[in-house]
C-alpha cells in the first residue's frame, strides 16, 4: 500500500491528529499504522477499524463527486509554509481554490465586543484590498468579522474548520462560508462527514498558524482558543501581533498579556498594513478581485452553460444573472441559448 492511499484511509478513522501523528512516527508511516489496526495491535473502536478498511479509490470517488480535493503533504499545491510545521497534516480536504502564498491570520474570541468586530472587519477588508490572503477559523466573533471584511472586498480568504468541509459550524456562518468559496477556500484535516466536536478545534489552530506568516489577535480572553493559536504562532516562529485594549475589559486581557510578553502592538489599520508589508514585502501587483473579474475567470473561453457557471461560482442563477447583466452592458459577455460567452 502506498503512503498517500494509507494516509487517506487513516484520515477517516476519526483519530485525534496528535495520536495519528504519534502512531505514524512509531509505525513508520500511515501504511504501518493501517497494518497495526488490522492486526489489532492499535486499540480503536470497531467503527474506526471499519472506516480504515474502505479502499482509497472509493474515498477518492466520493470526494470527486462532492467537489472536494484531497491534498497530500509534499504535493505541489500543498502550501509550503504549512508543510514547515512540526506536525503538519498529512492530508488536507479542500473545497474551493486554496491560495498557496503565506497569509495573514486574524483570530480572536467568539465573545467579541462591537469594537473588536468592527476592527476585525476593517483589518480583513484592508488586507483583502491589498491583495493579501486572510486566514481564520469561521467561528463566531472575531473570525467571522475578519472573513466578512474579506468577502466585502471579494478578496482571498481561507477558513480552517474543526469539522468536515461539507458541514457548517456554526450554522449561522454557512452563507459566509459559501461566499468565501467564490475566491478562496474552506479546508480541514477532517474528512467530509466529520461533525464538529470541542476536541477537534485546538488541533485546527495549528493549520491556521501554518498557513500564515503573521498572526493577529484582535481580542482574546483568558483562557481561549485565540491564546492557543498565539502560543502556536510563537512556537512556529510566526510574527505575532495583538491589539491593545482596555485593561479592565475581559476580552482584552489576552491581547494585553501577549503585548507584555513581546507581541507587536497593532495601533490601527494603516499600522497593520505597514507591518505586513515589512514582513511579507509589498505586493507587486494587486489582483483585480472585482466580482466581474472573478466571473470571467470562471467562464470558459468557448462559453459556459449558465447553470454550470452558477455551480462554479456557488451562486444562485438569479444572483448570477445580475452580474451577467452588468458584464453584458459593459460588452464583456453575451448570453446565447443559456450559455455565457465571453466577448
Give a description of the structure:
The protein is α/β, with parallel strands linked by helices. It has 3 domains: 62 residues; 178 residues, Rossmann fold; 52 residues, Orthogonal Bundle (Arc Repressor Mutant, subunit A), CATH 1.10.10.10. Helices cover 46% and strands 15% of the residues. It contains 16 helices and 12 strands. Strands 1-2-6-5-4-3-7-8-9 form a 9-stranded mixed β-sheet, sandwiched between helices. A 3-stranded antiparallel β-sheet has the order 10-12-11. A hairpin with a 2-residue loop joins β11 and β12. The longest helix is centred in the middle third of the chain and has 16 residues. The protein is globular and about 65 Å long. The N and C termini lie far apart (50 Å).
Mind sketching the topology for me?
Elements (H helix, E strand, L loop, with lengths): L2 H9 L5 H11 L2 H10 L6 H7 L3 H11 L2 E4 L7 H4 L7 E6 L6 E5 L6 H16 L3 E4 L5 H11 L3 E5 L13 H10 L1 E4 L12 H10 L1 E6 L7 H11 L3 E4 L10 H8 L3 E2 L3 H12 L10 H8 L5 E2 H8 L3 H13 L3 E4 L2 E4 L1
Parallel strand pairs: 3-4, 3-7, 4-5, 5-6, 7-8, 8-9
Antiparallel strand pairs: 1-2, 2-6, 10-12, 11-12
